[in-house]
Write a structure and sequence with these properties.
Order of helices and strands: EEEEEEEEEEEE
CATH superfamily: Jelly Rolls
Radius of gyration: 14 Å
Structural class: mainly beta
Number of helices: 0
CATH class: Mainly Beta
Distance between the termini: 22 Å
Oligomer: single chain
Strand order of the largest sheet: 1-2-3-10-5-8
Length: 126
C-alpha cells in the first residue's frame, strides 16, 4: 500500500491559464494509472490531442465543452466522459468560473500527441 498526500502535490502551469496537479503517477508508485487535476480559466482547456490509452474526464466544478473527434458534449459538475484510446479529443472551459477537471489515464505516465504541430508532444516527467 502507498499513501499519497494530495495536498502536498505541486501545481504546474502547463499553458497560460491552465494549471495541473499530478496526483497519482509512476512518480508516486502507480504502475497502471495516471490521475491528475486541471484548473482552467474561462475559455481555456486542453487543445485537440490523443493518448495511446483510454482516459476518463470528470468535471469536478464548472462547465466544459468536451469533444471526441467531431462529437461534442456540454458537461458540468458530476459528469464523466470516457475517451477511447487513440481518439483525438480536447476540452475547454465553457463557463465563467474556473473549470476543475479530474483526468484518469490507463497508464502511469502522461503522454499526449497534439493535432496542432505548434504544440510539442508532452510527456510528464517531474
Amino acid at each position: 500500500m502507498r499513501v499519497i498526500n494530495q495536498a502536498t502535490q505541486p501545481r504546474e502551469e502547463w499553458r497560460k491559464g491552465v494549471e495541473t496537479v499530478m496526483l497519482v503517477s509512476a512518480v508516486t508508485g502507480s504502475s497502471q494509472l495516471c490521475i491528475f487535476e486541471q484548473f482552467c480559466a474561462p475559455g481555456l482547456g486542453a487543445p485537440n490531442h490523443l493518448h495511446a490509452v483510454e482516459e476518463v474526464l470528470t468535471i469536478v466544478a464548472g462547465e466544459a465543452e468536451i469533444w471526441v473527434g467531431e462529437e461534442r458534449h456540454q458537461a458540468k459538475a458530476g459528469m464523466s466522459v470516457i475517451i477511447p484510446a487513440g481518439k483525438f479529443h480536447g476540452f475547454r472551459n465553457s463557463g465563467s468560473d474556473t473549470l476543475h477537471v479530474r483526468a484518469t489515464l490507463a497508464a502511469p505516465i502522461f503522454e499526449a500527441s497534439y493535432d496542432d504541430r505548434a504544440e510539442l508532444t508532452r510527456r510528464w516527467v517531474p
